[in-house]
Write a structure and sequence with these properties.
alpha+beta; Penicillin-binding protein 2a (Domain 2); Beta-lactamase; five-stranded antiparallel β-sheet; 20 strands; 17% strand
């Protein structure tokens, strides 16, 4: 059955259309209202916030690292400066797949896989976001051209001109001035993130490390406008950095070279001080190394050669070398005996060639097996008589001996501005009980009196102890910096002077040391032949391996590196000291025969003019120029 056809209701359709139109219009108006509200919120209410974001996308603050301060020797010779260099830097956040970019760099510059490993290591080190990381230094013109041609393949990579530390004197001051190197992750955590923005190197050793705050300066910055790709369009604002302070050292390059020549290529250390001020005039540790290798990153192979060398060129023997001081401390032991009253200058001891403690049959040998007979203080110092000092040490006892040696700086750091210095070791009864869990034995006191046993000292400490004898107890701590931007360094923790009950004791010991050099039986009289000035000195020999009781040292039966170390300390002119020198020659065997001539050469280089006469400032005759001026 067919269904009837419904008649279309036009009125109803019209109402439906009108309702849909109204709803649609309402929806459109509502959406427009929401859009306007959102625009109002973003552009009016949050105007400051979004304008700042927009500005930050357009304007960037870039740090300007300060120029590092220069370092000079006392005569104005540059020992550390800054040289312009082009380096290749990479910003990881702008490089996308930075590992692939490194591969392209290696390909373009035709580098080795080892270089690629170094680049990756540098990129993975701790850094700040969006901070360019230098990966290759000292680019050649050809390398710069290759980078420019392939720039489209190297996003986030750019060639940057910067100043790089340079040491024009090479190995001469490597152990005193030190060197700079790349900032590592540990250092990055402790450094001021603002002041070290844009700085990639820091002082690692020596003066470079100790005076890092003064040498570094204050960072500057500039606000630059960039495009969407990060390219700088213009500089909007600039605040210049404050350069680091220049430092003038007390070191003298001519004396430094003279000391190196005096060592003659042997392993050892030389340190020369001005006892009046504590200024270090020369500081040599041989063998040395070229500090320039470390500035931009030393290769694995080159570093392995330095690190594994049997001669240890990286080891600072002046500050970290610990050696038994041997007889070089006998003048200090003599002062202890005189001041404590256990001996006088005329007290005599009979020397049959050995010393024996009461109720003991062990013989403590004198170096002169035949003995020197009756010896007083003057003769004991001149002859370096072990028997006399065994007896003196026994009379003093370990407690007084240790206390007096501490006053001379043994067992403590003595310098003012040498970061790597070792305190050495001055043993005591309490030290042995704490470290060895043993009592102190009388025989240990005896060998301590001649600078053997547990005692260990650095060449710098021996020089300072000798300076105290020359200076009659006045403490001037050794320091390398003569002035910092024209101002002298200040000792904020001065060490008390040594005050004796009878100040003339200094003169008595001084005379004994002069007899070492100028006496008829002095142990180092050959080194003083022809001297234009009086020298006060003391030789020493430090055992490397022990010798059995009753045996005699035979160099032919001892390996070269097991032979005794040769030491010598001295000052001149003896009546008015202007220079103190301490020398240690590793495995040199004879302090008076090997180390003493080195001391003499260093003193001559400092005190004598080119014509071989004593310089006028040290008491010599005036120069011809001065004489003419006076006559006029």
């Amino acid at each position: 059955m067919t269904q009837p056809i419904r008649i279309k209701d036009h009125e109803k359709d019209a109402r439906l259309v009108r309702s849909r139109v109204v709803f649609g219009a309402f929806l459109v108006v509502a959406l427009i209202a929401v859009l306007i509200a959102r625009l109002y919120f973003l552009q009016v209410i949050q105007y400051d916030y979004h304008s700042t974001l927009s500005e930050n996308n357009r304007v960037h603050v870039q740090p300007i690292p300060p120029t590092r301060g220069l370092i000079f020797d006392r005569n104005g010779v540059v020992v550390a400066d800054n040289r312009p260099s082009f380096s290749l830097s990479m910003t990881r956040e702008r490089s996308g797949d930075w590992q692939q970019v490194l591969d392209v760099i290696v390909e373009v510059l035709q580098l080795t896989p080892d270089d690629r490993a170094i680049f990756e290591k540098r990129m993975k080190q701790g850094r700040r976001p969006f901070e360019p990381v230098p990966i290759l230094f000292e680019l050649t013109e050809e390398q710069i051209a290759r980078i420019a041609v392939n720039q489209f393949r190297l996003p986030g990579v750019e060639v940057v001109a910067q100043l790089v530390r340079h040491y024009p004197q090479g190995p001469h001051f490597a152990h005193s001035v030190g060197y700079m190197g790349r900032i590592n992750e540990k250092e990055l955590k402790t450094l001021d993130p603002v002041n070290y923005s844009g700085t990639h190197h820091i002082g690692k050793t020596g003066i470079e490390r100790f005076y890092e705050p003064e040498l570094h300066g204050q960072v500057g910055y500039e606000e630059v406008e960039t495009n969407a790709r990060g390219r700088v369009l213009r500089v909007l604002k600039r605040t210049d950095p404050v350069p680091g302070k220049d430092i003038v050292l007390s070191l003298d390059i001519k004396l430094q070279e003279a000391a190196e020549m005096a060592l003659g290529g042997r392993r050892g250390a030389v340190v020369a001080l001005d006892p009046r001020t504590g200024e270090v005039l020369a500081m040599v540790s041989q063998p040395s190394f070229d500090p320039n290798l470390f500035v931009t990153g030393i290769s694995f192979k080159a570093y392995a050669e330095l690190r594994d060398s049997i001669d240890r060129p990286l080891f600072n023997r002046v500050l970290r070398g610990l050696y038994p001081p041997g007889s070089t401390i006998k003048p200090a032991v003599a002062i202890a005996g005189l001041d404590s009253g256990v001996v006088t200058a005329s007290s005599r001891v009979f020397d049959p060639g050995y010393y024996m403690l009461p109720n003991y049959d062990h013989k403590y040998r004198n170096w002169n097996r035949t003995g020197d007979g009756y010896v007083d203080l003057d003769t004991a110092i001149m002859r370096s008589n072990d028997t006399y000092f065994y007896d003196l040490a026994h009379k003093l006892g370990i407690d007084r001996l240790s206390a007096y040696m501490g006053k001379f700086g043994l067992g403590q750091k003595v310098s003012l501005d040498m970061f790597e210095e070792s305190p050495g070791l001055m043993p005591s009864r309490e030290w042995k009980r704490a470290t060895r869990r043993q009592a102190w034995f009388p025989g240990e006191t005896l060998i301590l009196g001649i600078g053997q046993g547990y005692m260990q000292a650095t060449p710098l400490q021996l020089a300072q102890a000798t300076a105290l004898v020359a200076n009659k107890g006045l403490w001037n701590r050794p320091h390398l910096a003569k002035t910092i931007e024209g101002e002298k360094p200040v000792d904020e923790n001065p060490i008390p002077d040594i005050v004796l009950r009878d100040p003339s004791d200094w003169t008595k010991v001084n005379h004994g040391m002069q007899q070492v050099m100028h006496g008829a039986r002095g142990t180092a009289r050959k080194a003083a032949v022809g001297a234009q000035y009086r020298i006060a000195g003391k030789s020493g020999t430090a055992q490397v391996v022990a010798i059995k009781q009753g045996e005699k040292y035979d160099r032919s039966k001892v390996q070269e590196r097991h032979r005794d170390h040769a030491l010598f300390v001295g000052f001149a002119p003896a009546d008015d000291p202007k220079i103190v020198v301490a020398v240690m020659v590793e495995n040199g065997e004879s302090g008076s025969g090997v180390a003493a001539p080195v001391v003499r050469q260093v003193m001559d280089a400092w005190l004598l003019a080119d014509d071989g006469r004593l310089k006028p400032e040290f008491g010599g005759p005036p120069s011809s120029t001065e004489v003419t001026a006076r006559e006029e």
